[in-house]
Amino acid sequence: MTDINLNHIAIVVDDLDAALGFWRGSLGLPQAGAVETVPDEAVDIAILSLGDAHIELIQPTTADSGVAKFLANRGPGLHHVCLEVPDLDAKLAELQKSGCELINESPRERDGRRYAFIHPDSTGGVLLELYEKLPAEPGG
């Protein structure tokens, strides 16, 4: 049994409202909170609940961001798969030691999670994000 779990599958879209019309409207997936703007990544994100995992719809907010370039080159569709790991630093060190190409050699942090991306050249063509939940604040 592994201690790695699916966190979310991210889908890049050019029209977040239209995408929500399908995923939330047609399929009936519940939206987990409001659409979030993430300035550091230059995206708007809508998260839809799917059992213990999520579908993350991402729309670029600038024309020059990495996600915008991805959308321009490949069109809408699968952007990345995100797995949750118990110790991100250890996993990144293990992957780097085995020769994997890391996009983020050091974890980034946002919303109570640490994360890093692994280059598709090392994963069989899929952009991979690894997440680690941060411990809860004492008394929080």
Biggest sheet strand line-up:
2-3-4-1-5-8-7-6
Percent helix range = 10-25%
The topology string of helices and strands comes to EHEEEHEHEEE
- Number of DSSP-assigned strands: 8
Stretches where pLDDT is under 50 for at least 5 consecutive residues are none
First-residue to last-residue Cα separation: 31 Å
What report would you give on this structure?
The protein has 140 residues and is of the alpha+beta class. The protein is built from three helices and eight strands; from the N terminus they run βαβββαβαβββ. β2 and β3 form a beta hairpin. The longest helix is centred in the first third of the chain and has 11 residues, at 16-26. The protein starts with a strand and ends in a 7-residue tail after the last strand. The model has no long low-confidence stretch (mean pLDDT 93).
Key descriptive features of the protein:
140 residues; alpha+beta; 8-stranded mixed beta sheet
Question: Could you provide a short overview of the structure?
Answer:
This protein has 140 residues and is an alpha+beta fold. Helix content is 21%, strand content 36%.
SSE arrangement:
Layout lengths: L4 E8 L3 H11 L9 E3 L4 E8 L2 E8 L5 H9 L2 E8 L3 H10 L10 E3 L2 E6 L9 E6 L7
Parallel strand pairs: 1-4, 5-8
Antiparallel strand pairs: 1-5, 2-3, 3-4, 6-7, 7-8
